[in-house]
Amino acid sequence: MTKGKSPVRVLIADDHAIFRDGLRKLFEGSDEVTIIGEASNGNECIRMLGKLKPDILLLDLRMPEKDGLGVLEEINFDSIPTRVIVVTAAEDDRDVVRAMRLGARGVVLKQSASDLLLKSIKKVHEGEIWLDNRMTAEVIDAFKRSAETGQRRDKPLLSDREKEIVQLVAQGFRNREIGEKLFISEQTVKNHLHNIFDKLGVSDRLELALYAIHHRLIDQT
């Protein structure tokens, strides 16, 4: 970890105490990640989010009182700095797609190796989308099934400016922020995105980011 860089502040929301204990022990002594709180149900998670404002929320989709999807529906991402990683034992791509559309930035299966979980936390904290290779393909396929938007071009002819915007969208920047970085107006960004959506046959920003990753339009290690 870079000297002087603060650890990523993580809130865990999962109704299984054994799983929470395992994560806490995994990150004990780490200078890269610190666990700042634990929630055992969705309502508790919402309360702790507002109070703690973590960098990362590790969110289980199956919880009592309010499930993970319900939590995502209630989060105002404009009011907190939190990015959400869904940590789930289920492999239902319909729930995964809905979670991503509701604002989750990553999905990790509970059976994944601990080093992948740590890597996902760091990548999502840096603004990237995290899906392992198998999950990326499944989510892309699910998007195709849930929103037929016409034929996509195998080799889309994007301008250099459009490629820059795709990169920034995939990193999680909003239109205003993209405009500031590229010294163009927010409306110009919107115009470019309209053209990009049309060229690639995607329907929203998330699908654009996933498409870009899947087709190697951006760097993704």
Number of strands: 5
Q: What is the C-level CATH assignment of the largest domain?
A: Alpha Beta
> What's the architecture of the largest domain in CATH terms?
3-Layer(aba) Sandwich
Q: Would you tell me the overall average pLDDT?
A: 83
Structural class: alpha/beta
Q: Looking across the biggest beta sheet, what order are the strands in?
A: 2-1-3-4-5
Radius of gyration: 18 Å
Number of domains: 2
Main attributes of the structure:
alpha/beta, five-stranded parallel β-sheet, Rossmann fold, Arc Repressor Mutant, subunit A, globular, 10 helices
Short structural description:
The chain has 2 domains: about 10-145, Rossmann fold (3-Layer(aba) Sandwich); about 150-215, Winged helix-like DNA-binding domain superfamily/Winged helix DNA-binding domain (Arc Repressor Mutant, subunit A). About 50% of the residues lie in helices and about 10% in strands.
